[in-house]
Amino acid sequence: MVSPDLSIPEYPDIFVIGDSAHYEQDGKPLPGVAQVAIQGGRYVGSVIKAHVEHYPAPPPFVYHDKGSMATVSRWYAALELGNFKTAGVIGKLGWAFIHILYLSDMQNRIRTFIQWTWANLFSARGSRYITRPFTREELASVDIPAEAAKS
Questions:
Q1: Which label site among 70, 114, 119, 145 has the fewest CB atoms less than 10 Å from its CB?
Q2: What integer pLDDT is reported at residue 39 of this predicted model?
């Protein structure tokens, strides 16, 4: 549970954002999505800045829902932005566009666009996929903490 300024009630100098924070708005807990964490982080930054620079604290945190997106497969995603809802290929194109739009610079945007286009058009697997089973010898060579090895 966090206070309206996203601090811990008993420790006003400790802030919690994102999935770790339980904050209710309009009687409902905020969802555990990236936008809540991003907006919360910006808000907490403004609270800390106001404190350091001896300004009045900003008003309580308010989350602004920018919509929801979920990718399901290579050519299917669901997209909800305000009253606009779509799914399928159009949803996937919207999902990809929005993700690329939020990348940090033009070089990353272009590189990601080319990689995603190539992977989707030519069924190329990305580096995040496990493409073959590992042998016992390969798995045994991986260093794991002793606690994990016992279980």
A1: 145
A2: 96
